[in-house]
Amino acid sequence: MHATRQETRTQDMIAVPAPPLRHQQLILTIYGLYGRGGGAALPISVLIDMLGDLGHDAPGVRSAVSRLKAKGVLNSVKAGGVAKYELSPRSLEMVNEGDERIFAPYRGTPGGDWVLAIFSVPESMRDRRHQLRTELTRLGFGAMAPGVWIAPSGVCEGAKRRLAARDLAEYVEFFTGNYSAEGDMRSKVAKWWDLEALGVQISEFMDYYRNSLTDWTTYVGEDPAAALAASSEELRRDAFRYYVPMLTLWRRLPYRDPGLPLEYLPEGWQGPEVRSIFFGVHRLIAPMAEAYAMSLLNKAEAA
Question: What pTM was computed for the model?
Answer without folding.
Answer: 0.87
